[in-house]
């Protein structure tokens, strides 16, 4: 079991536990953070049949009064409609300011539940129990919550930090290889940003045997960044390595290319561009590309620089006429560069050069 503490900017802190067996001990663990109260345990139609009952029982045994709310699995549940129904469900259960929501699932459930908890009665507490690798290494930590609008992803949301995060790594065993690869992309990203040892697990090691280590390393890096810059005015932007091209790739593929896979392609592009521009050594660049490939992730981009640049320029991350892109300098260090929107196409073109 690994335990980490994230300190929020207003001085509060919350525990992040990663280990085996947490589904069955979550009640006792949560009791040490939140006194027994009413709980809305939120999950989806894939996760609930596998894991909901064990979490429910553990919470009930610890004295919590548990209600459950299960939504359809999939990104479609990050909608205003499903969000509204969840709020109504909180009200139906007569939840008060001192009660608790728990997200048991992947990033979709975490984002949806966190947003509803942040809005209900102007904010109640919530706890993350991530069941995907992507959520464990990324989405469950840091307090970003949101749902999608018809105009785009994550357009309605708020910053609302969880009161605790419990990741039972045993639950990850039922994910598909594709879903594991999605999470691996964000973990490899963290390695490139600031943790060469984490990168090496994906480069040479056996990531499946090292999940606790991977998650705690990724969480530790993200916690440091979030503590320093919770609302993404500065260093938190680093976490967007590969994400500017990735968002364009997701959109151009009509979301058939998943986020993690798109991030892998985006990181490959930023790597090639950094080598071409003399920012990153060629051998380090090869190590990054090989490591992405070794972990069943793509490095080839099926779209052109012009069509991608068009989308990036209307992306919400493009503040006015400039865009911040992240370029690797070496494995474990990246730089932020502010570029005029007009030069993004040339950067993407550099990123596509030489791909097979
Ligand atoms: P997801 O929640 O849709 O989970 C992926 C699939 O795996 C779903 O079908 C789900 O039902 C299933 N699943 C979940 N856990 C399982 C398990 N243990 N066994 C079997 N199946 C399981 O998606 P995700 O990849 O976890 O997260 C993606 C979402 O997270 C996106 O909406 C993205 O915007 C969001 N996200 C948020 C942040 C943040 O900081 N808030 C960061 C990254 C991503
Ligand atoms: Mg991401």
Task: List the SSEs and their pairings.
Layout: E1 2-7, E2 13-19, H1 22-31, E3 38-44, H2 47-61, E4 65-71, H3 80-92, E5 100-105, H4 107-119, E6 125-130, H5 133-139, E7 144-149, E8 152-159, E9 164-168, H6 177-194, H7 196-204, H8 211-228, H9 243-252, H10 259-276, H11 282-294, H12 305-314, E10 322-330, E11 333-340, H13 344-352
The structure holds nicotinamide-adenine-dinucleotide and magnesium ion.
Using brief descriptors, characterize the structure shown.
single chain; 356 residues; alpha/beta; Rossmann fold; Dehydroquinate synthase-like, alpha domain; 7-stranded mixed sheet; two-stranded antiparallel ribbon; 13 helices; binds nicotinamide-adenine-dinucleotide; binds magnesium ion
According to CATH, the fold-level topology of the largest domain is Dehydroquinate synthase-like, alpha domain
Low-pLDDT ranges: none
Radius of gyration: 20 Å
Structural class: alpha/beta
Average of the residue pLDDT scores: 95
Query: What is the CATH C-level name of the largest domain?
Result: Mainly Alpha
Number of structurally distinct domains:
2
CATH-assigned homologous superfamily of the largest domain = Dehydroquinate synthase-like - alpha domain
The tally of beta strands, per DSSP, is 11
CATH architecture type of the largest domain: Up-down Bundle
Query: What percent strand?
Result: 15-25%
Strand order of the largest sheet: 1-2-9-6-5-3-4
Shape: globular
The set of bound ligands, ions and cofactors reads: nicotinamide-adenine-dinucleotide, magnesium ion
Helical element count?
Answer: 13
Fraction in helix: 40-55%
């Amino acid at each position: 079991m690994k335990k980490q503490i994230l300190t929020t900017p207003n001085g509060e802190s919350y525990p992040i536990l990663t280990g085996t067996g947490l589904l069955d001990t979550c009640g006792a663990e949560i009791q040490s953070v939140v006194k027994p109260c009413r709980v809305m345990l939120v999950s989806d139609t894939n996760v609930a049949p596998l894991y909901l009952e064990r979490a429910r029982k553990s919470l009930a045994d610890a004295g919590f009064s548990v209600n459950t709310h299960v939504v359809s699995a999939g990104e479609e549940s990050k909608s205003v409609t499903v969000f509204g129904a969840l709020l109504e469900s909180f009200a139906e259960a007569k939840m008060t300011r001192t009660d608790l929501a728990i997200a048991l699932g992947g990033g979709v459930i975490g984002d949806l539940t966190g947003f509803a908890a942040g809005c209900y009665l102007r904010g109640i507490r919530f706890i993350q129990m991530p069941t995907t690798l992507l959520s464990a290494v990324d989405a469950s930590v840091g307090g970003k919550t949101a749902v999608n609008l018809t105009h785009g992803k994550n357009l309605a949301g708020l910053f609302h930090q969880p009161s605790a995060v419990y990741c039972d790594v045993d639950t990850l065993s039922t994910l598909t290889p594709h879903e594991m690869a999605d999470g691996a992309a964000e973990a490899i990203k963290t390695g490139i940003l600031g943790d060469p040892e984490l990168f090496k697990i994906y480069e040479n090691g056996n990531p499946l045997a090292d999940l606790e280590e991977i998650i705690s390393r990724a969480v530790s890096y993200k916690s440091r960044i979030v503590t320093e810059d919770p609302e993404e005015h500065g260093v938190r932007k680093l976490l967007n390595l590969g994400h500017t091209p990735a968002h364009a790739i997701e959109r151009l593929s009509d979301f058939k290319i998943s986020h993690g896979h798109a991030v892998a392609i985006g990181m490959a592009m930023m790597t090639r561009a950094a080598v071409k521009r003399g920012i990153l050594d060629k051998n380090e660049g090869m190590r990054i590309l090989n490591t992405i490939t070794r972990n069943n992730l793509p490095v080839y981009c099926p779209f052109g620089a012009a069509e991608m640049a068009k989308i990036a320029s209307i992306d919400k991350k493009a503040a006015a006429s400039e865009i911040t892109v992240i370029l690797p300098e070496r494995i474990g260090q990246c730089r932020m560069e502010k570029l005029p929107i007009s030069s993004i196409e040339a950067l993407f073109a550099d990123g596509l050069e030489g791909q097979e």
